[in-house]
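Human:
Focus on the backbone:
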Amino acid sequence: MTLRATFEGGALNWLGDNSSRSLDRFVLSPSVMRGFEPGGIGPRDRSARADGGTYDDFLGGNLFAVARFDAGIPPRRARRAGPAWRGVL
């Protein structure tokens, strides 16, 4: 059995006016944050539009941190032991 822990993080550091554009911010993909579609987690703009509706735009983030923990059976042992099992926490 193999156990693996992966940690990732990031921070934007702007010089000058300390403001970031939404195009420059972090957008976590499903390969980084499992269980969410792109732009599915994080701050959103839900302000009112002129036509009476509301916006639902993803803004991204200036900071992110992700921890992933995996456990699995290597393929060569899985052939002898039956089906391969893998868990994600």
Summary: The first helix runs from residue 75 to 81.
